Amino acid sequence: MKKCAYDLKLVGGFLLAHLLLYFSFQDKNIFWYIFTASLLILISYSILIEQLEDKASFSVYIIYGVVSGALLYGLFWTGYSLLDFLNLPFLDDVSKLYNRFAPSLIWHYIVLLLVIIPGEEIFWRGFIQKRIVKHTNVWIGIIVSALLYSSAHLYSGYPILALAALVAGIFWGILFAWKRSLPMVIVSHLIFDLLLFVVLPLQ
To answer: What is the average per-residue pLDDT within 90-96?
Structure first.
């Protein structure tokens, strides 16, 4: 892990992400503008430094992407149902998160699908996780990159969002390490978000 600290491109990218996401979460009224711009910057940073990987065929990354995205949603639905069954106060935070950050306008959904989802995977899995794995091993890379991904969501003010990002980060990190296909992870993330925000919202 010490070698990661000397990787200035890795450290610089992580600090840049924190700075951008800090400003993204500050104002609900401009969240979608700043968040979209932030992901465009992080995409540019990533592709200038790391080569994008796709070692799966089109049919493989579509099938695995769709199935894995649905499985992850199922995991979140189960967790939400458990919170509801136990009548825990975290349910209020889920509702507040939807009200504050969920897409509501047509252009929100467009940038979510075309910029934000691909951008998060290109940066956190295709850049951060890949750089960490160069200095450690696959499992450390998956866990540490998921923790870093989660930490950037703390600026939202909702710890449950950071926890959700940690779970999703580990899931997508394993998926990326397994098939080495960013398009597959992007499809998985896309299916998950469509289920979460459009088809079967958790509220």
So the answer is: 80
Nearest to 145 by CA among 3, 10, 46: 10
Residue type, 2: K
Residue 28 tokens, joined: 């609900």
Task: Give, for 162, the enclosing helix (H) or strand (E).
Answer: helix 159-179
Give dist(CA 152, CA 38) in Å, integer: 12
Residue-wise pLDDT for 34-51, tens only, equals: 999 999 999 999 999 998
Instruction: Pick the closest to residue 42 from 21, 17, 9 (CA basis).
Output: 17
> Residue 2's pLDDT is what?
66
Q: Is residue 1 predicted with pLDDT exceeding 70?
A: no
Burial 24-46 (b: 16+ CB within 10 A, else e): bbeeeeebbebbbbbbebbbebb
Q: Are 42 and 160 in contact (CB under 8 A)?
A: no
